[in-house]
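Hi support team,

I've been running sequence recovery on a batch of backbones for a student project. Most finish fine, but this one hangs at about 90% for roughly twenty minutes before it completes. I'm not sure whether the input is malformed or the queue is just slow. I've pasted the structure tokens below so you can try to reproduce it. Let me know if you need the job ID as well.

Thanks,
M.K.
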């Protein structure tokens, strides 16, 4: 009977080792699946964050474009006003020269009256 007991003990030990190996494989499979799910979730989250960043960048670009367009309009209006004012200044200078010439002519007539 002793030989049978010796054969059973090594088989029991082998069975125990196989059960531990199966448990280890199952645990590693679960960990692998969990890691794959976490990686997938991380990739999905990163994609969403990239999309959000792109959306925000597009909104900021659109807002900056609106500001730039408004500034261009303001600049054009200011340039038009400047051109108009420059023309008015030139007209006033010409008018001043005409008034000066007329006054000089009138003063010349007054001088002639005073001399006569």
């Amino acid at each position: 009977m002793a030989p049978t007991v010796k054969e059973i003990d090594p088989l029991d030990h082998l069975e125990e080792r196989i059960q531990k190996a199966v448990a280890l494989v199952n645990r590693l499979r679960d960990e692998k699946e969990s890691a794959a799910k976490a990686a997938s979730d991380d990739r999905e989250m990163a994609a969403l964050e990239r999309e959000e960043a792109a959306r925000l960048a597009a909104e900021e670009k659109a807002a900056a474009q609106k500001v730039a367009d408004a500034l261009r309009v303001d600049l054009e209006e200011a340039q038009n006003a400047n051109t108009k004012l420059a023309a008015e200044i030139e007209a006033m200078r010409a008018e001043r020269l005409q008034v000066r010439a007329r006054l000089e002519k009138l003063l010349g007539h007054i001088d002639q009256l005073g001399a006569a």
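--
Follow-up from support: It reproduced on our side and the slowdown came from queue contention, not your input. The CA atoms of residues 24 and 30 lie 10 Å apart. No action needed from you.
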